[in-house]
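agent: user wants the structure for ABC transporter domain-containing protein from Tilletia horrida. delegating to structure tool.
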Amino acid sequence: MSNLSLFQTCPPGLGGTNCSQATCQSPYTAPASRTTKPDSDQQCTTCDQGFTGLNCNVCQGQGSCQAARTRFDPTFVPSSQAAALGFNQSLTCYPQPEVITQSYTDCEVHSPLISNFYPGNFRLSLTRVVDAVNISATGQPSWPATNASTLSSVWLDGVEQFYCQSLGCTGANQTAPAVAGSTAQWGTYNWTCATLECYCIPGTQLCGSGSIISSLLPDIKGPLSLPCDYTDPSNGDATGSCAFKADILQNFLGPDGLALQNCRSGACLVQDTLDQHWANDVLAGGKGGSASSDSSQLTGGVIAGLAVLGLVILGLLGLVGLGLRARRRAALKPRPPPTGPVGLRWKDLSYTLAPPTPAEKAASVLAFNELRQRRRGHGTTPSSAPFGLGSSNSQKAEDTDMFHMDDVNSNTAGNPQYHSSAPPSHSSSTVLLQSVSGYAAPGKMVAILGASGAGKTTLLDLLAGRAKAGYQGGSVSYLYSHHTPLETLSQASASSSSKLIAYVDQEDQLPPLATVREALEFAATLSNPENALASHERTQLVNRTLDVLGLTHVANRRIGDSQRRGISGGEKRRVSIGLALVARPRILILDEPLSGLDSYSADRVVEALRKLAITTNNSGRPSSSSNSDEGATVIMTLHQPSSLIFETFDDIILLAPGGKTVYHGTPADALGWCERNGEPCPAGHNVADHLLVVSQRFKGNLAGGHVQYQSYAQQQQQAQQQQQQQQHGDQSSQHQYQIGNGSNSSHSHGGFGGNAGTSFNEKGISARSSISEHIAATATVIPHHQQQSRLDQDDGDADAVETTYKSVLRSRRGRGGREAASGQAPTTFFTQVLAVSGRFWRHALRDPAGPMAHLAVTVGVGLIVGGCFWQVSLSIGGFQNRFGSILFSFIYLAFLAMSATTNMGSHRALMIRERANGLYTPFAWLLSFVVYDLLLLRVLSSIVLSLITYFMIGLNTSSPRFFFEYALVSILFTVDMALYNMVLASGIEDLSSAVLTAGANILFQLGFAGFLLNVHSIPGVLRWLQWIAALKYAMEAVGSNELKGLRIVDNLGGVPVNAPASLIAPTLFGFEPFYYRDVLVLALPFLLGFFGILTFIVHQKMRELR
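agent: tool returned. relaying tokens verbatim.
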């Protein structure tokens, strides 16, 4: 029995009990109504008008299908609305062998070999299907066809003998003719199938008992090739040649297989389907295809791109989950123990703006390599190092690019020697500091005085670990109270050393739209680890800071700036101090905190700072009223303090021009020091002002590394002072400074106020015994006997006693280098993103002028564009206007994205300051800023513009997805342009240059978008630039949707024009209809690429470098 009987409905043209008889009329007649052809007739004689072939399946004539469709369904009328939108629903007959949706072919079999055995009229009928769904679109009765399939029936004298079925079929054009010897003037269409199965119909002449064909058919297997020559399109009665080629047939019948002649093909198609197929065929270079190529087809490359995009999204979600987990784990960690205030000691600090000479650079690198090899071999620093300095708790030297001037090498004699930290020797060098040594005891309030250019700010920068562009050297170490347990010191150093120091810059950089309380809460959240403070404790800390600084009355007032009214200058200065205080630092360093303040405001600031310094009693213990986890050592620079403020400090450090320490002692001893050096202070004169005058009379001999005083009277006073020291011994408490040639004599060092028995020279402390004596006399630090015992312990204990601040000093050459360790954020990344994002969005609500301006301008431009291009026609001019309106919209979005340059520029200074203060990492800030800027200013504006222009212009509304695809392209293009402009703003500090570059990029995009300049006409040496123009991909992606079904209907000089727009656009603009490819290019290489570049530049360029 024939397998065709399994069909619930026989294929068109077949009927009878087993679907083995030919039926007549046409495919538009219901199968049950089609009459069966008598077996005596070689073909049907009752075909409907316009149909032919053995079973009346082949249409003939352009209007045959439309007429048959009307007869089949008299109510069918093509939609005028669809026609107005460019969709032609009328039916047409396509008389070529090419298969678009389905096709019928009727041929005569020309095989002399078969005719010799079986004389008669052999015919072959073909039913080829690409898309079975589209068959019903033509109005034909449905049947259970399979996509990409072929049904072949062989007839002898009008009776079906056998049939073959094939699957996995596809078609393409070729140049070789179907049959050898044929001309194939119009080309050949080759239909190939992956499988082939043939079946006999029992009782027929060819498949009767003992027939050769019946034994041969089971061996006919795939693949199958069915080439057919195109016929003359101007001749409706033209026929062509085909061939039925399978391996076994070619073996028996020759290379042409079963040759077919006088073939007629015909398929009823919707005119719009045919037009779209022609357009895609042209865009594909005339290669043809088994189906119309869809611009949104998911090719292998597109699928791979979507897979990558999906992985990126999954990765982002995974990172969010990891961030939440890390934040939770950080909050559950045990709190670090309190340490109380911490002091600082610095030795031989030097700084010059000139880079080192090649010889010095080679020596530094060699010394660093020796140090690294020694640490790798031994793991710790020898306990014989001066001050008991060991390796850093937080970071190993070999993990950084630092050259530590505090590390030591032991020579053969066992004497420790410091690495040379001398500045470059060439005369063009600008030396700001040279061999400056000093200390600030824990809980003390120290002022650094000096004239302009004396190096005060440079010294603070080095002590605070700020990134410097010049060459620097020396050592800085922490000083802890000897009453603090070793375990507490060790744990505190490991857990919270990054926030031991807080730095207040001379210039205020504050968020203008935040209130005072919000600014302090923001800093408190990001300055303390998640496990350090609970929410209520953080609120108490902020309230206490407001009270100490006298800011309670302005706590809920916005800070303001030059354009927005806010708090006063003195209050801003105190807010800057408060931002540092909420970090609970152990050392507070301030650069000119009183600059620009009136006397009252200055007194308020100093009074607040005085409360922070913990007063110590004679035993060196903090007072009982002090909290061991509060208070700080305060170090600040002053320019011209009042007498009252001058007397407030515990210690004064005086710097002379050239970066040399002239005096280090108490304010009360300053007058005596001036008198002993021949410069008595006039009665009633401000001592601080007089010290500045005295410092000007010291000048540094930079080559020799010493400071010489130019007063003869001072020389006489020095001799008297030496005699007094010999008489009084350890009872002397005068703070003196060594002058002269720097020989290791009995001159006492006024810079430290040491005893007469303590000897110092210009290179620092000379002996370990003098260190403990000096510390015991002046500060609450470890005395010698405790220090020595602890130094004999492990290296971790030694670091806890007096920890070297290795992360402060590093050799920097040029404007590169890494982040200072003090810039490391103590909180997790997720906490940083939440805090920074919250501030961005809160500020947007308080100052909606920017977002509202973007929306208002976007609405205005959208209405103007929509009005100018209102419901564009389908003429040639309307086609040009259609793409012109799209280009105009995209160009506006490009200009809209330029505001990202100024937006990032306005946040640059605050970001650099807060990054230097260690509040957050650069990527946390960047991610928060990008999401805020893109969502609020770019994405929203793109959606609004798309909603207005798309429907006013009258773009493709045949499917809702076209609008969403258009909006997606608009968003991606705007985001790409905004990210590019952010790259410019982050890499170019001059905003005018960044804006100029952004404008030049828009001209570049406009030139290579394909609308104003055909990319195919560009010289080959420049044509590649089109691939880096985001606007080209945006226009191409939107154009691929607009070309679907769009027909140009016009009249040129009396000649009617009715052609698919997809035939003209590729030649006119150079567009290719690959929507998904263009979207992926906009999303992956451009969006992710620009974001990656932006991340790198922000990390490298948007940093503080002094």
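agent: one observation worth passing along. The mean pLDDT is 74.
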